[in-house]
Write a structure and sequence with these properties.
2 copies of one chain form a homodimer. Chain A is of the alpha/beta class and 351 residues long. Helices cover 50% and strands 16% of the residues of chain A. Chain A has 11 helices and 11 strands. The first copy, chain A, has an 11-stranded mixed beta sheet with strand order 3-2-1-4-11-10-5-6-9-7-8, with helices on both faces. In chain A, helix 1 packs across helix 2, helix 3 packs across helix 5 and helix 6 packs across helix 7. Chain A is globular. Chain A starts with a strand and ends with a helix. Chains A and B meet through helix 8 and helix 9 of A and helix 8 and helix 9 of B. Chains A, B: It is found in: Cytoplasm. Chains A, B: One of its GO terms (molecular function) is phosphate:acyl-[acyl carrier protein] acyltransferase activity. Chains A, B: InterPro entries: FA_synthesis, Phospholipid_synth_PlsX-like.
Chain lengths: 351, 351
């Protein structure tokens, strides 16, 4: 199997200085992939010249324009038809690449991906899904901001899509799926969450019910489905706390000469600890619900981090995630229509 | 000034074994307070007998019933009129105590507080406000779960109430207030957040605009106003991440004999670090918008942690927080009614 990955070389805060070395690292790591670097040819070639690489597995596809990190999605869609982001997605649409990886503007990448690649049958809204470390492994959380005010059906679709992803990429036969909610009994959650709860209780997935924010990290749930606003708040708040803790840990070890000496002695322990929670290893959010594979890297990703996003793209190609999702969502829709017909028949009988 | 604090001695996961020692610690720390321990007399006296204390500043008020931690708020309200929680709040209503502190069931405490103490004029819904550490100090976040689906006006009231609290308890003359939102430009936030944004732009408080989840912890905002669902998700997710990080840090230092030795050497540094982010120091959430002071302690609080909730109650009594809030909310309502009248006059003129 030969997998071709289109990399938006211009996206992210650092552009080619990150995307090119990360692509070369991926090529050396995975013998089954080739990469198309999409972006300003001169810049990419200048960066490539700094490295040793197998030229037969890398191509440069020139793109005149760049989508800015703060550009409005609607403007990027309308005015940036020659951007590296758009052309990378076009390659995927035209089957010249199997997946696209970009560290560009999230809103624009989602808007252009939806427009160019389209959603799978039955999916109204694609979702952004990322994985995060837990006390026992990792968890997939979606949506992280593509949808604000998703209804119950969308939340149920997110749950199914996440379940398919976990089955495929984690080789987890029966992933546990939860719905993000809060614990206050009588005011529990929004109507949409209750609606999704009803749909999921009748689905074939391993639905375990409501989970609260802290349970995301306990390791007892494999997929957490939530509205994009809530997911974004949970993810960003988590990032914020992690950064604050790391800040105070550094501060304590940097306080004076003695503490610096302790830091030196503790270095291997602190290193082992940091590797466990290193967010760079979890870089690469999947846009689920599209007909093809798109992976969004964090804008501030370094080469190690961007490499992980490419690795995620490769894995989803091998597992053929979009087809698996299409299959499961069709099954869900069929079940729902059976349930609806049954309930309709029931109502008619009673009438 | 003599401040009387009614402590729901039965509330929380640990009951009198936490609330009694914490109360005695508060008495020895603050010479200006006295405490009424409300709950099962025999149990309280048994616990008191284990300690040395000044009997002139502590009273026991017997309560037959206890509100369970998982009891529905409506049931607690209806069936537990002789509970320690209810009687402690009655003491505050009857001016026999200046504030109530409870580690009991949050939903029940909010429902009973609203019923017994009532909200301030102009306030539809009280909010739960807690403080959390940041990279530069601390931040107040509200609401944390009392309101799901708060409208723009409520979010604006939360902002004002938080601002009043920060001014009073932090001696911060001009606290910076933000509205929790997500960063995706075109789908930015719910309508209620945009409505609150408009109200706050025209208010007298130091409103700095939208903040994202990670900005809660950066130290550049003093109050974050949000819907109860969002605040609860942000807080719980933050707790979850912090616990996970602490879990992996312990694991790294406990790995083998050598790392345990390193832990021993690092002990003072790790201790200094932990003190900085110790959630126990931030225990004690304020129910803002009520006519009197109610402080909710974490249910799992230990004595050190519960003591901090009592200290918060004392401070809010000294600063007279409810009156300050009443004053500011009235000013906001007056401004709004002026704005509405002006806009109405304008519309009529145009018509």
């Amino acid at each position: 199997m030969s997998i071709s990955i289109a990399v938006d070389a211009m996206g992210g805060d650092h552009g080619v200085s990150v995307t090119v070395p990360a692509s070369l690292k991926a090529l050396s790591k995975f013998s089954d992939i080739s990469i198309v670097l999409v972006g300003q040819q001169a810049l990419i070639e200048k960066e490539l010249a700094k490295h040793q690489y197998d030229a037969s597995r890398i191509k440069v596809h020139h793109a005149e324009q760049v989508v800015e990190m703060d550009e409005l999605p609607s403007k990027a869609l309308r005015n940036k038809r020659q951007s590296s982001m758009r052309l990378a997605l076009n390659l995927v649409k035209d089957d010249e690449a199997n997946a696209c990886v970009s560290a560009g503007n999230t809103g624009a990448l989602m808007a252009v991906s939806k427009f160019v690649l389209k959603t799978l049958p039955g999916i109204d809204r694609p979702a952004i899904c990322t994985s995060m470390p837990t006390m026992k492994g990792h968890v997939h959380v979606l949506d992280l901001g593509a949808n604000v005010g998703a209804d119950g059906e969308s939340l149920a679709q997110f749950a199914i899509m996440g379940s398919v992803l976990a089955k495929a990429v984690d080789n987890n036969a029966n992933p546990r799926v939860g719905l993000l909610n809060i614990g206050e009994e009588e005011i529990k959650g929004h109507q949409r969450i209750k609606d999704a709860n009803e749909i999921l209780k009748n689905s074939k997935i391993n639905y375990i019910g409501y989970v609260e924010g802290d349970e995301i990290y306990k390791g007892d749930v494999d997929i957490v489905s939530c509205d994009g606003f809530d997911g974004n708040v949970a993810l960003k708040a988590s990032e914020g706390v992690a950064k604050m803790i790391s800040f105070y840990l550094k501060e304590a070890f940097n306080k004076n000469l003695l503490t610096k000496l302790v830091a030196l002695i503790s270095y291997p322990v602190l290193k082992a600890f940091k590797e466990k929670v290193d967010p760079r290893r979890y870089n690469g959010a999947s846009f689920l619900g599209l007909r093809k594979i798109v992976i969004k890297s964090h804008g501030g990703a370094d080469a190690f981090s961007f490499y992980h996003a490419i690795a995620e793209a490769r894995l989803e190609v091998i597992k053929n995630v979009p087809d698996l999702i299409a299959h499961e969502v069709k099954a869900l829709l069929d079940t729902q229509s059976v349930v609806e017909k049954a309930s309709q028949a029931n109502t008619e009988q009673q009438a």
